[in-house]
Amino acid sequence: MEDARNAAKYDNVQAHGRKDLAVILHHLHGQGGADKIILAIARKMASSGHRVRLMVGRISDCSAREREVLTEGLEVIEIREGLTGKVGLAQRIGRLLSADAPDAILATKDAGNLVACLAAAMSGVSSRVVVRQAHHFTSAMRRKGWPRRMGFFLGSRLLFHRADLAILVSRALEEDLVRVSGLTSQRCVAIPNPVDAGELERLAGEPRSPKVRDLAAGPLLLAAGRLTEQKGFDVLLRAVARVRADGVEVSLVILGEGEERDALEGLRDQLGLAAVVHLPGYTDNPYPWFRRADLFVLSSRYEGLPNVLIEALTLGLNVVATDCPTGPREILEDGRLGRLVPINEPVTLAEAIKLGLTTPLDSVDLKDGAVRYELSHVVGQYEEALFGRLPAGGME
């Protein structure tokens, strides 16, 4: 019922005419899921006739071809952060906004949101400022150093009042963001991450990366994400060792790159999994692996709304996920579309993996469950948030 109300609320995709949107990113990372999501939304808006400017402080891990694809149809303005850091970046963006004010400003991720709010305050423009919160702020900050935690907390408190609206990728994020930022619930709206089902199907049909050869003949588990402590791949490795000890000859491919590679490879070897666990690194098209895999496993300690789960469902791939804050329970509809297990419990995760392999859910039901995340529908919700009437009480 709530999904139906949201669909009606954001139904009129083309109601607002041609608008001018500024998208602000602190750092465009070629492997960053949040960056790719916001740029997919921006490209869709540009293709429908809106003017979209991308103002970005830094671009990294992005080949010339990847950059061209990610920013197609956008006006890209790269503004170096420089020695003055985020404040200097906000000043330079603020001057650009003052000279050519957009109808709306959209930002994402903690640093980008703070830079956008500061730039808008410095510029004095009346543009609507919309920030996007894509992860559980408290869980993420708990793993940072004390100075960074306090910096982001105070910055959020001081600057988020400049935001007219916050887009939350999961309804479960609202309580956390309201507590941290001081925004009211009336200035928060839940809009999920989108997927382009047709494009995923096309990409999944391409030849698979040759980086992993001679996979074992048994069931293949797949995981994907940056190799960081957040993703819980250490727990997944221990779960795989348990599954194999119980006589199920699984292998595992983890797609992604990150600072935990050496630690994960060491743990893999220590567990005797070197021959059956592969870490081929980052690939710009992971979807042929979704076609090859028997089960996708998300082992994260926290998320926002993990798009990789939505993509797996869209391609009809069975999933097992940790019931972490936030997103998996919402995406998997309280376990109807995939098994949920507690975080940091390799034994429980191993049992869920075995059940997922022996009693898979129907792929048609999985695909049907992902329909609500289709790109065109989600972009319509973004257009309403950016250019439509603000919710009652949304302005203070």
Describe the structure.
The protein is of the alpha/beta class and 396 residues long. It has 2 domains: 2-194 and 374-387, Glycogen Phosphorylase B (Rossmann fold); 198-373, Rossmann fold (3-Layer(aba) Sandwich). It has helices at residues 2-9, 33-47, 64-70, 85-99, 110-123, 137-142, 146-159, 174-181, 197-204, 233-245, 261-270, 287-292, 307-314, 328-331, 346-358, 363-369, 375-387; strands at 20-25, 28-29, 51-56, 59-60, 75-78, 104-108, 128-133, 165-168, 188-190, 220-224, 251-255, 277-281, 295-298, 319-322, 339-341. The chain has a 7-stranded parallel sheet, sandwiched between helices. A 6-stranded parallel sheet has the order 12-11-10-13-14-15, sandwiched between helices. Strand 6, helix 5 (110-123) and strand 7 (128-133) form a beta-alpha-beta unit. The longest helix has 15 residues, at 33-47.
Helix content: 40-55%
Total of helices: 17
CATH architecture of the largest domain: 3-Layer(aba) Sandwich
Please give the radius of gyration in angstroms.
Answer: 21 Å
Order of the strands making up the biggest sheet: 5-3-1-6-7-8-9
Strand content: 15-25%
Overall, the morphology is: globular
Highest CATH level, the class of the largest domain: Alpha Beta
Structural class: alpha/beta
Mean pLDDT: 87
The CATH superfamily of the largest domain is known as Glycogen Phosphorylase B
